Amino acid sequence: MVVALACSSISCTFTPFNRSNSVLACSGSNPDQRRRTVIFGSSLALASSLLASNQQSFPVESAIALEQLKEKEEELEDEEERNVNLFQKTSASVVYIEDIELPKTSSDESNVEENAKIEGTGSGFVWDKLGHIVTNYHVIAKLATDQSGLQRCKVSLVDAMGTRFTKDGKIVGLDPDNDLAVLKIETEGRELKPVALGTSSDLRVGQSCFAIGNPYGYENTLTIGVVSGLGREIPSPNGKSIREAIQTDADINSGNSGGPLLDSYGHTIGVNTATFTRKGTGMSSGVNFAIPIDTVVRTVPYLIVYGTAYRDRF
Questions:
Q1: Can you tell me which residues the record assigns to a coiled coil (predicted)?
Q2: Catalytically annotated residue among 99, 175, 177, 179
Q3: Is 267 a residue of the active site?
C-alpha cells in the first residue's frame, strides 16, 4: 500500500512500513527539487518497539507488585496465626501469683483475706499435673522469710477445661542461688496443663522467643522478641551469680518474673527473671534475662523431693 500526499510543490510518498528496513523518502516533484533523502526507519522502528514495550511492561510490573504484596500479606497473616496459636496453646500453663499480707488484727476473721494487702505480683508456670508451680525465688521471698505468719501466696490459673480458679500456694522448695522456687497448690481433681519443656543448649542468637506473664498485674500478656545473647551472668537474690542466662529483647517488666520464655514451638526455654530498667521509670530497657531451662530441669526435681538444690543437701 502506498499513500501519496500532494503538497504545493513537494510530492511525499510513504512506502509500506518494514521494521527491518523502513525508509521514509521525501522528494521534490522534479529532479531539481530533490535535495536529500532522510532515512530514519531504524529510529522509527525503535520508537515503535519502545512504545509497545512500555504499554506491555506497565501491566506486567503492576501484576508483579500486586503478587509480591499479596505474598507479604500472606506471610504476615501466617506469622500472626502462628503467634496466636502459640499463645492459645501455652497460656493455660502460665499462672498469676499474688504476694499478700494479712492484717495483723481483724475483728472479722471470715473476711480477713479480703482485707489483705497485695504486696507484689509475679508469674509462674505449671510444672506437672500434681500441682507443682515453678516461679522465681524473689517473687515469693517474703513468704519464704516470713516470721509473722501473715504472708500468703495466691496462685490463679485455669485448668485444662479453661475454668479459672485460685488456690493458696505452699512452698515446696527454694533455690535462691538460681532464683528458683517451687510452690504446690491443691488441684482438687482438676486437670492441669503443664508446660512443654524444651532445651537451652542449642539456642542461637537471633531466633524468635516469646514471654508470657502478668506485667503490672495484667494477666496473660504476650511479648515477642529474639534471643539477643547467650551465656550471660546475672546476680541472684542472695548475691551469687546465675550463669548461662539468656538475654532477650522480649519485654520483661515487673510482674513477668517467674513466667516462661518460649521458643517458636511453644517449648519453655527459660524462666523470665530480670531486666535492666530505664532510670527513674522502672520500665524495661530491652535488655532482659531468663534462667536457662536446662538449669531449671536439673534443679526443680530436687526442690520437689528434698526442698533444696542438690548442692545444698550436703
A1: 62-89
A2: 179
A3: no
Domains contained in the chain, CATH given: 207-293 (2.40.10.10)
- Report the distance separating Cα 116 and Cα 124, nearest Å: 21
- Per-residue pLDDT, 61: 72
Q: Which of 200, 236, 257, 284 is catalytic?
A: 257
Q: Is 138 a catalytic residue?
A: yes
Q: Tens digits of per-residue pLDDT, 56-73?
A: 555 667 777 777 777 777
The letter for the amino acid at 50 is L
**Is 251 among the catalytic positions?**
no
Catalytic residue among 22, 93, 123, 138: 138
